[in-house]
């Protein structure tokens, strides 16, 4: 049988942590996915061990090829690594517990992976789905909008792209990559309220450094469920802080003069941004924009100092 004619086995994986209402909507959307000719399975990994979550997942047993797993070691990437070890699919499709899948999502992933047999990493579009009669506190044209609300809608057709432009809620990786020893870094990603963003990005950046390419599949579509609290400015600033932390952790240390284990220029930028926030306190858009920049800088400084402390501990060991 030719490769392009065989049935692609797919394992869909997601981690969840006490978000039962959102998870239920996600699984409901999976019931409407077209899977003609697909042999597939779904792993839901509970990163808490909540009986209510188990009840919800098991309630879909008669509708979906679903399996409930528990990983009590905190961290989304710990949960994903557990699923990876047990998955049987040829193509691992990763998503989150707060998506609404398009009907053709898995078929597009399957077909795309067949059209690009020499590529191992794939990603699709992610569009926002807002609660009724709400809107984002920043415009969709704002430079932080896509990162804040996990939106992927690159203005390109199907084709090659660097792996770091593939985002976790709509990502597929061939199983052989994990058989070669690659895994998600358990020190990055959701792990409580104050965490380093970029749980999947760290792995994708390493795959990119190893020489791998990826393919963007615009017709493989999921929607990100935006919660009402995510439309509050305070949440947006918290997101900016976590984003700043991820920038300081994932990239190489800058060649700069350091103060208190963080680049000195960051303190200057932080002070300047704080002063401009005061000056523009009556300009809503400008104030929000400066607030985002301020909290990104705060996240940068926090993580550089934390990173230096951890490196000192590692040297001591």
TrEMBL record:
Glycosyltransferase 2-like domain mapped to chain residues: 11-140
One Pfam family matching this protein: Glycos_transf_2
CDD domains: Glyco_tranf_GTA_type
Coiled coil: none
Listed GO MF terms: transferase activity
InterPro entries according to UniProt: Glyco_trans_2-like, Glycosyltransf_2, Nucleotide-diphossugar_trans
UniProtKB keywords: Transferase
Entry-linked PANTHER family: GLYCOSYLTRANSFERASE, SLR2126 PROTEIN
Stated name of the protein: Glycosyltransferase family 2 protein
Organism of provenance: Oryzomonas rubra
Lineage: Bacteria, Pseudomonadati, Thermodesulfobacteriota, Desulfuromonadia, Geobacterales
